[in-house]
C-alpha cells in the first residue's frame, strides 16, 4: 500500500535557522561595513565567564533583556521582541540569546572592553547567537571548547558590526574556517531549502512571471 | 503603435472596462493589466517580416479587443529545444533522481529506490509547499506563472517552464501528424486558434517561433465579446482550433459551419461528450483529438477517436490505484495517478489526479479507458441565457473565495456555499450573472465543503443547457 507524503517534520535547529533566515540579515553587507572592536580574546574571555544563572532553563529572556538592556531595549522592542519569542521556545536558542545578553552585561559587571561593543542593533547579535549559531553548536560548547568559543566570539563581533584587531583577509578567512553552519551539510541544506522556497514564492508572485507566455490549448 | 513602456504592443483599442462598482468586474482582465515585459523580451527572435504579419493581425478591422499581450519568450537556443520533444530514453530514472532531491522529500525516511517506493502526492501538498516541489537546481529565470483552480476552486499557483509551455505546440503538431494530417505553416491562415467562451477572457495574438513564425491567437468566442467574430474567423480560417468543449461547441453555430476548414480540432480541460465529438466531426470532417491532462501534470493522454485515452509518448507514466493506494488488477477501475516529467520546474512522482478510469493496453501502448472526473457544468440564467461554470469561477476567485459549491435546482434557484472571501461581492456578482433566486452561505474552512473531491458546480438545468449546445452535462464521478 502506498503511503502519502508526510508533511516535512522540522527539527528545532531547522526551525531556528528558518527564523534566522526570515530576518533577512545580509552577511556580505555586514562584512563591507565593519569598524574596529574589541579583540577576540577579550570577547572569548567574557564567554568563559558566563554566570550559571544566565544558562538556567527557567530563564525568562524578556525579563533578562529588560534588566540588561534597560532603555536600549525600550527603543528596539519592536525588533528584539520577535527574536526573544522565537528563542524562548527551544533551550539551545534560549541559552544562545542569554549568553549574548551576558556579553552586554559583562561590560558593567566585569568592566569595559578595550573598544566598546556597538549596541546599535542588539536584536541582530541576539538572533545570530540564538537562532543561527545555537542551531548548529550548543552554547554549552561555546564556553568549554576553544574553537567554538572563538567562533562565538567572532560571531559576537561580526554581528555587532565590528572586527577584531586584524586585517580583513585574516578575519574573513578565520571566520570561514570556524563557521559551523558552513560545515554542517544537513543544516546548510535545510537553510538552502528554506531560501529556495522563499525564492520560488517570490518568482511566482513577480509581475514578470504573471505575464502569461503564449499558450496553445486549455490546461 | 508604441506602448508606454516602449514596447510595440497591440493596444490600439481597449475593451470597455467595467466601472469599479460593477459586480461582474474582473480587474485582471482590464486591457493589458498583466503586461510586464518589453517586446524584445516577449519575442526575442521575431523577424521583421513576422512582426509585420503580427501587426496586421493585431490591427485587423474585425479582430477582437486584445486584452493581453503574450509571446513565447524563447531565444534562439530555446526555439531549437522547444521545437522537438524531450527524449524519453531512460527518463524515469533521471526523473526519480530529481524528485528524490526535492526539498519536499528531505525528511522522507526512504528508501525511495523504485517508483512504487514513492509516496502519493496530491494537490494539497502543492498548495501547502509549492516551493518544496521545485528542484533546487532549477532555472527559475524560465518560470512563468500558471494557475489551476482545481476541485475546490482555490487557485494554486504553478511554476510553469517557458520551454515546456512552448513545447505544447510541438506536442499538438505531433498529434495532428499522427492523425494523418499534414499541418504546415500557411501565411494566408491562422496556424492555431486557441478558443475560449467566457464572459471575460485574456485574448492575444502571437507568432509561433517553433513553427516558422506562423500566427496564433487566443480568442473569446462569446458572441457578446466580439461583433466581428465570424468575419474574422472565416477570413483567417484557422488550421487547428484548440479549446475546451464549451468553446468548441461554438464552432457549430450557423455562421461558422461550412465556412471554416480546420485540419484538426483539439479539445481539452473538460470531458468531451460523444455527441459533441460526433457533431464536430460531422460539421468539419477532420480529426477531433481529446487531450487529457492536469495543469500540474501537463498533457497525459489523448483520445483520437472517442475510445480510450492513449498515454502520450512523452515523459509521463500512468498508474491506476485503489482508494488505499494499491495498484488495481489489470483493467480494473481506480484513480488515475500520474508521474510527470515534462515540466522541469515541477517534477511529480505519483500525483493523484482525482480522476478515475481503467488502464488498458491498446496497440501495445497503455491507455486510460472510461476516463471520468473532468468537470463541465452550465448554469441557466433568467431568460434562458447559458452561463458556463468558468464564468462563476472567475468571479468567485476575484471575491477572494477559497472554495465553493454552487448548485442550481430544477426551478433555477441557486445556492452558493462559499468558503471565506467577500460574501456580499459574491452575492452581487451571482445576482448580476444569473438573476435567479439566490442563497449565499459563508463557510470558514474548505473542510466544511465535505470530504473527498467536492464538486464545485451542479445544475439541474445543466443537462438541458448542454443538450442545446452539445456539451456533456454534469460530471459523472
Structure described in brief:
Chain A is an all-alpha fold and about 220 residues long. In chain A, about 70% of the residues lie in helices and about 0% in strands.
Considering DSSP H and I runs of 4 or more, what fraction of the residues of chain A is helical? 55-70%
Q: Judging by the overall fold, what is the CATH architecture of the largest domain in chain B? A: 3-Layer(aba) Sandwich
CA(first)-CA(last) distance of chain B: 50 Å
Number of strands of chain A: 2
| First-to-last CA distance of chain A | 31 Å
Q: In terms of structural class, how would the helical and strand content of chain B be classed? A: alpha/beta
How many domains of chain A, as an integer? 1
Sheet with the most strands: spatial strand order of chain B:
4-5-3-6-7-8-9-10-14-13-12-11
Number of helices of chain B: 12
What's the β-strand tally of chain B? 20
Question: Would you give an account of this structure?
Answer:
The complex is a heterodimer of chains A (219) and B (477). Chain A has 219 residues and is an all-alpha fold. Chain A has one domain (12-200). Chain A contains 13 helices and 2 strands, in the order H-H-E-H-H-H-H-H-H-H-E-H-H-H-H. Chain A has helices at 12-23, 27-32, 40-48, 61-69, 71-88, 91-109, 122-136, 139-144, 146-160, 168-178, 180-183, 185-205, 207-210, and strands at 35-36, 162-163. Chain A has a two-stranded parallel sheet. Chain B is an alpha/beta fold. Chain B has 3 domains: 27-72 and 181-286, no CATH class; 91-164 and 292-372, ANL, N-terminal domain (Rossmann fold), CATH 3.40.50.12780; 378-469, GMP Synthetase, Chain A, domain 3. Chain B has helices at residues 39-42, 48-58, 76-82, 91-100, 123-129, 162-178, 229-236, 245-248, 274-284, 389-398, 423-434, 462-469, and strands at residues 143-148, 156-161, 192-196, 204-208, 214-220, 240-243, 264-267, 288-294, 298-303, 309-311, 316-321, 333-340, 348-362, 365-372, 378-380, 386-388, 403-408, 414-419, 438-443, 457-459. In chain B, the strands form 4 sheets. A 12-stranded mixed β-sheet of chain B has the order 4-5-3-6-7-8-9-10-14-13-12-11, sandwiched between helices. A 4-stranded mixed β-sheet of chain B has the order 19-18-17-20, covered by helices on one side. In chain B, helix 3 packs across helix 6 (162-178). Chain B starts with 38 loop residues before the first helix and ends in an 8-residue tail after the last helix. Mean pLDDT of chain B is 86; it is low at 1-17 and 469-477. The chains are: A mainly alpha (219), B alpha/beta (477).
Amino acid at each position: 500500500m502506498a503511503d502519502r507524503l508526510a508533511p516535512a517534520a522540522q527539527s528545532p535547529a531547522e526551525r531556528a535557522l528558518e527564523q534566522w533566515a526570515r530576518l533577512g540579515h545580509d552577511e556580505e553587507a555586514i562584512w563591507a561595513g565593519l569598524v574596529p572592536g574589541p579583540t577576540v580574546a577579550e570577547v572569548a574571555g567574557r564567554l568563559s565567564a558566563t554566570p550559571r544563572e544566565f544558562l538556567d532553563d527557567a530563564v525568562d529572556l524578556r525579563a533578562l533583556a529588560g534588566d540588561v538592556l534597560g532603555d536600549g531595549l525600550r527603543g528596539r522592542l519592536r525588533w528584539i521582541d520577535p527574536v526573544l519569542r522565537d528563542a524562548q521556545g527551544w533551550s539551545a536558542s534560549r541559552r544562545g540569546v542569554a549568553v549574548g545578553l551576558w556579553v552586554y552585561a559583562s561590560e558593567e559587571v566585569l568592566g569595559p572592553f578595550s573598544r566598546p561593543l556597538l549596541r546599535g542593533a542588539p536584536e541582530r547579535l541576539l538572533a545570530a547567537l540564538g537562532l543561527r549559531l545555537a542551531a548548529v553548536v550548543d552554547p554549552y560548547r561555546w564556553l568549554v571548547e576553544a574553537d567554538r568559543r572563538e567562533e562565538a566570539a567572532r560571531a559576537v563581533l561580526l554581528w555587532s558590526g565590528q572586527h577584531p584587531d586584524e586585517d580583513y583577509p585574516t578575519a574573513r578567512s578565520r571566520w570561514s574556517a570556524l563557521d559551523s553552519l558552513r560545515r554542517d551539510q544537513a543544516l546548510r541544506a535545510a537553510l538552502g531549502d528554506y531560501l529556495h522556497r522563499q525564492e520560488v514564492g517570490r518568482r511566482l508572485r513577480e509581475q514578470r512571471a504573471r505575464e502569461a507566455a503564449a499558450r496553445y490549448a486549455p490546461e | 503603435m508604441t506602448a508606454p513602456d516602449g514596447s510595440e504592443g497591440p493596444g490600439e483599442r481597449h475593451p470597455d472596462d467595467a466601472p469599479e462598482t460593477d459586480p461582474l468586474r474582473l480587474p485582471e482582465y482590464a486591457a493589458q493589466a498583466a503586461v510586464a515585459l518589453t517586446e524584445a523580451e516577449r519575442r526575442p527572435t521575431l523577424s521583421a517580416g513576422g512582426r509585420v504579419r503580427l501587426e496586421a493581425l493585431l490591427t485587423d478591422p474585425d479582430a477582437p479587443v486584445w486584452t493581453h499581450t503574450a509571446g513565447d519568450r524563447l531565444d534562439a537556443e530555446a526555439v531549437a529545444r522547444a521545437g522537438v520533444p524531450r527524449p524519453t530514453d531512460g527518463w524515469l530514472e533521471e526523473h526519480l533522481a530529481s524528485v528524490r532531491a526535492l526539498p519536499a522529500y528531505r525528511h522522507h525516511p526512504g528508501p525511495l529506490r523504485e517508483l512504487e517506493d514513492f509516496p502519493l502526492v496530491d494537490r494539497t501538498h502543492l498548495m501547502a509547499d509549492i516551493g518544496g516541489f521545485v528542484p533546487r537546481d532549477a532555472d527559475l529565470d524560465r518560470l512563468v506563472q500558471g494557475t489551476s483552480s482545481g476541485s475546490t476552486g482555490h487557485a494554486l499557483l504553478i511554476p510553469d517552464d517557458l520551454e515546456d509551455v512552448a513545447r505544447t505546440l510541438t506536442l499538438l503538431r505531433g498529434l495532428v501528424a499522427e492523425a494523418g494530417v499534414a499541418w504546415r505553416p500557411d501565411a494566408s491562415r491562422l496556424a492555431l486558434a486557441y478558443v475560449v467562451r467566457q464572459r471575460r477572457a485574456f485574448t492575444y495574438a502571437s507568432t509561433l517561433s517553433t513553427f516558422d513564425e506562423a500566427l496564433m491567437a487566443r480568442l473569446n468566442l462569446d458572441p457578446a465579446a466580439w461583433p466581428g467574430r465570424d468575419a474574422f474567423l472565416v477570413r483567417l480560417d484557422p488550421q487547428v482550433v484548440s479549446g475546451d468543449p464549451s468553446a468548441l461547441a461554438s464552432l457549430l453555430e450557423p455562421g461558422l459551419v461550412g465556412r471554416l476548414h480546420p485540419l484538426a480540432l483539439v479539445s481539452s480541460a473538460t470531458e468531451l461528450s460523444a455527441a459533441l465529438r460526433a457533431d464536430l466531426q460531422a460539421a468539419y470532417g477532420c480529426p477531433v483529438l481529446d487531450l487529457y491532462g492536469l495543469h500540474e501534470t501537463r498533457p497525459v493522454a489523448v483520445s483520437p477517436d472517442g475510445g480510450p485515452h492513449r498515454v502520450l509518448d512523452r515523459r509521463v507514466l500512468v498508474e491506476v490505484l485503489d482508494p488505499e493506494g494499491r495498484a488495481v488488477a489489470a483493467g480494473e477501475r481506480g484513480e488515475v495517478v500520474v508521474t510527470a516529467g515534462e515540466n522541469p520546474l515541477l517534477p511529480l512522482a505519483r500525483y493523484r489526479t482525482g480522476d478515475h478510469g481503467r488502464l488498458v493496453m491498446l496497440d501495445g501502448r497503455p491507455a486510460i479507458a472510461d476516463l471520468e472526473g473532468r468537470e463541465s457544468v452550465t448554469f441557466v440564467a433568467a431568460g434562458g441565457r447559458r452561463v458556463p461554470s468558468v464564468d462563476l469561477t472567475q468571479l468567485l476567485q476575484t471575491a477572494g473565495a477559497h472554495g465553493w459549491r454552487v448548485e442550481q435546482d430544477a426551478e433555477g434557484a441557486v445556492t452558493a456555499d462559499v468558503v471565506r472571501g467577500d460574501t456580499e461581492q459574491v452575492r452581487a456578482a451571482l445576482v448580476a450573472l444569473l438573476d435567479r433566486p439566490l442563497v449565499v452561505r459563508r463557510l470558514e474552512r474548505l473542510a466544511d465543503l465535505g470530504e473527498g473531491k467536492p464538486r464545485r458546480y451542479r445544475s439541474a438545468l445543466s443537462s438541458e443547457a448542454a443538450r442545446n449546445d452539445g456539451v456533456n452535462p454534469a460530471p459523472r464521478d
